[in-house]
Amino acid sequence: MEVKDIVDINTIRTDMKAKSKEEALKELAEVLLQNEYITDIEVFLKDIYEREAMGETGIGNFIAIPHGNSESVEKIGVAIGITQDEIPWETLDDNGVKGIILFAVGKENDGAQTHLKLLSLFARRLGNDEVIENLLQSKDAAGVKEALCS
Amino acid sequence: MKIVGVAACTVGIAHTYIAQEKLENAGKKAGYEITVETQGTIGTENELTQEQIAEADIVIIAADVKIAGRERFEGKRIIEVPTDVAVKSPNKLIAKAAEVIVQPR
């Protein structure tokens, strides 16, 4: 398995409507629910906000990586949203964000080593400036996947 | 200069690995040898070897939690920062490491 196996084209949105962090998290959580990654939006978001309260998830370069462990997660994955306008977010460089990568990881991860490993490789790619530049310029889901996985 | 590092964040899903990538890229860009071990949800990966640690001029610990195996670095010069610093300013952190190793102990 490779990183591309964890990036699901069905959970990528390049036409995000959200104008705020709250709207963005809700919009992407709904995408995760529709695609059966999570079973309960409210439980999931509560766990995501728990991590948000601990410190910035905006890593700079217009990217935010909200995440957390939640019992509502059925399968490990990510939802990716790209916005045209900056959304206000707590970030390390005090800019807003245009790319939001919402991680879904369960509380118990027995038997999920392969997926966790893929997720760690995926996260690592988010530390690469070139990858991020390509990601933010992507116009559609296929472009996003290509930027993150090539 | 040879650098070894350890990255470990609170949840162990994201920042750990982003910090690893940023530090390794910044170190290589500056012309140094660098290896960063990650301690995350999945466990320890890219584990530093005794040889790498022995040869390292400096240790960079980018962590928000207590790391495992800290005693491996006893007697070495250590820079310790939260993962955020490695994610936000990796180049500055590497430059700082280069400054530290020329200072008298």
Task: Give a topology summary.
The complex is a heterodimer of chains A (150) and B (105).
Chain A: E1 12-13, H1 21-34, H2 41-52, E2 58-60, E3 63-64, E4 77-87, E5 97-104, H3 113-125, H4 129-136, H5 141-149
Parallel strand pairs in A: 1-4, 3-5
Antiparallel strand pairs in A: 2-3, 4-5
Chain B: E1 2-8, H1 15-29, E2 33-40, E3 43-45, H2 50-55, E4 58-63, E5 78-81, H3 83-88, H4 90-102
Overview of this protein structure:
The complex is a heterodimer of chains A (150) and B (105). Chain A has helices at residues 21-34, 41-52, 113-125, 129-136, 141-149, and strands at residues 12-13, 58-60, 63-64, 77-87, 97-104. Chain A starts with 11 loop residues before the first strand and ends with a helix. Chain A has 5 helices and 5 strands, in the order E-H-H-E-E-E-E-H-H-H. Chain A has 150 residues and is α/β, with parallel strands linked by helices. A 5-stranded mixed beta sheet of chain A has the order 1-4-5-3-2. In chain A, helix 4 (129-136) packs antiparallel against helix 5. Chain A has a single domain (3-149), classed as Mannitol-specific EII, Chain A, CATH 3.40.930.10. With 105 residues, chain B is an alpha/beta fold. Chain B has a single domain (2-102), classed as Rossmann fold (3-Layer(aba) Sandwich). Chain B has a 5-stranded mixed beta sheet. In chain B, a hairpin with a 2-residue loop joins strand 2 and strand 3. In chain B, helix 1 crosses helix 4. The radius of gyration of chain B is 12 Å and the shape is globular. Chain B: Pfam families: PTS_IIB. Chain B: This is PTS system IIB component, Fru family. Chain B: Residues 1-99 form the PTS EIIB type-2 domain. Chain B: One of its GO terms (biological process) is phosphoenolpyruvate-dependent sugar phosphotransferase system. Chain B: One of its GO terms (molecular function) is protein-phosphocysteine-sugar phosphotransferase activity.
